[in-house]
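Troubleshooting: if your tokenizer reports a length mismatch, compare your output against this known-good record of 56 residues.
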Amino acid sequence: MTYKQVEQEIINFAENLKVIGIKPCEKLALFADNSCRWLIADQGGLHSYNNPPKIF
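Known-good structure output:
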């Protein structure tokens, strides 16, 4: 996976959080193995809003 592909996956994940109705400062829980998918989910949550949701 290239850095550009990872960036696009992060953007897609962030947009999908908005589509399903996640609001700024709303809590999210990530349950994942230490992997590329975890990085995408973590960064997507941070990227989703200027005021990112809380990720635990």
